[in-house]
Amino acid sequence: MSTIEVNKITPVDGGTNTTLGDSGDTIQVPSGVTLDIASGATLDATGATVSGITSTTINNNADNRVITGSGTANTLEGEANLTYDGSNLGVNIASPTLIAGTGMHLTSSGSDCRLHISNATVGNTASDGGYLFMGSDGTLGLLNSENADIRFYTNGTEKMRLRGNGYLGVTGTAGTGIERRLSVYGSHVSEDGLVWIQTSNGSGDTNLMLFFDGNTNNCGEITLNASANTVAYVTSSDYRLKQNATDIADGITRLKQLKPYRFQWKSDPDNTVDGFFAHEAQEIVPEAVTGTKDAMKTVENVVVNEDGSVECYNIAEADWEQGKLDGKYASNSTWEATKEVIDRQGIDQAKLVPLLTAALKEAITKIETLEARVQALESA
């Protein structure tokens, strides 16, 4: 074996390349030898086999794919489900999970910082999915671009739901009873009431709840008197809002048309109470009654008792089935997607007070007239 010892090999005058061996030759570098390739230099091994030097290839390489590797493998992978286009980092799988350690931040050079969650391919960020964002003014927001609910869970159980129509429900059972702008559902027994409203004032009056019409006119309020520990339910009654006022001249006549009854509610047959039939009182004092006699309405997701009465509605079928297992609903109850039920009438008995007062005043006047006549006869 021949040995050539040199300090430097360079191309001949006027050349630019130096070739070691011919095609098919093997150039060996013994174990332990260091090949120091200076920064900016190029090692051209196109089409050749280089052994003893770790080489790396990239599989599935494409625009915007994030490249990953593991251990001492010589192959890197272009991840089809993990992309970055310079603005958006996307995880394009059905149920992605983001695990963020301490010190991990998501920032933006724009007016706010956004974490975007979407079922669509990354790039449709303007109109789909949802965002958790921090605004430039410090506002923390949760935005859903879809016409769908936003749900809040604690201990693995849904506790609050904001529906796509703007209705908010605070509930112990997922989706139960969210049929108004604000709904609260739960056990009034175990929770000692469903809503707690407390003032910090230890004395004096405080408005707990105010009611306004569309023109921002105050129509009434619920007021607490902390000094007396009482609550007043107030409706608007200022004389400056009224016109064409006349005395009630037929108080007794109209009062005699009212028909008070003793009765039991079908839902509580063991207790007898006093009251009126709404449609009968409506004929005498129409402003005291709401609704229409014998009206019906269609409700959805109904739990029906064995006797055909409605236990409750707006209960998902799955929740009803679970409720039977938990003992919440009777085992012989049934569930119906839709059902015709009573659209009940109601009565505000406080609005009967003016008529009762007028009738009483008429009666007092008659009594006083009779007393005067008796006294005149006794004095004769």
Describe this structure as you would to a colleague.
The protein is of the alpha+beta class and 380 residues long. It has helices at residues 251-255, 278-284, 317-326, 353-379; strands spanning 57-59, 65-68, 75-84, 89-91, 112-117, 130-135, 140-144, 150-154, 157-162, 168-171, 182-185, 205-212, 218-225, 230-235, 261-265, 268-275, 289-290, 296-304, 310-313, 334-342, 346-347. Strands 1, 2, 3 and 4 form a four-stranded mixed β-sheet that branches. It has a four-stranded mixed β-sheet with strand order 8-9-10-11, with no helix packed on it. Strand 9 (157-162) and strand 10 (168-171) form a beta hairpin. The relative contact order is 0.05. The model has no long low-confidence stretch (mean pLDDT 84).
Number of extended strands? 21
What percent of residues are in strands?
Answer: 25-35%
Shape: elongated
The pLDDT mean sits at 84
Structural class: alpha+beta
Helix proportion range = 10-25%
| Low-confidence runs of at least 5 consecutive residues | none
Name the helix and strand elements from N-terminus to C-terminus, one letter apiece.
EEEEEEEEEEEEEEHEEHEEEHEEH
Radius of gyration: 41 Å
Helix count? 4
Q: Can you summarize the main beta sheet?
A: 4 strands, mixed
| First-last Cα distance | 164 Å
